[in-house]
């Protein structure tokens, strides 16, 4: 299940729209190591700053920032499996470990909070399923 690509948003492989309704985002950046970014404070702060227009963006950050609205609106239907996987990992990390930054990103890209709700419901369901299997 795809939760929030936002901010996912952030730093997930950069998405680049190819122009048609059935097109997919570029997979050029699918091999970006999202864990490396999440584990590196300098990189993490740089990407967050990029998405919040507080500092310059890398080419990957520019593409990501440009495509977040479309990805959110379409529930990432143009995303590759790797992009969805990275988006999910990013969202989980941000909500659980950097809630202040998540809130800022959410205010900008998902003001109704719908993707946080999806994530929390998914997390609750996963926990419930683990409890039931014991």
Automatic annotation (TrEMBL):
Taxonomic lineage: Eukaryota, Metazoa, Ecdysozoa, Arthropoda, Hexapoda
Matches recorded under Pfam families: OS-D (PF03392)
Organism field: Bombyx mori
Residues of the signal peptide: 1-19
Entry-linked PANTHER family: CHEMOSENSORY PROTEIN-RELATED (PTHR11257), GEO07322P1 (PTHR11257:SF13)
Protein name in the entry: Chemosensory protein 4 variant
Cross-referenced InterPro entries: A10/PebIII, OS_D_A10/PebIII_sf
Keywords recorded for this protein, A-Z: Signal
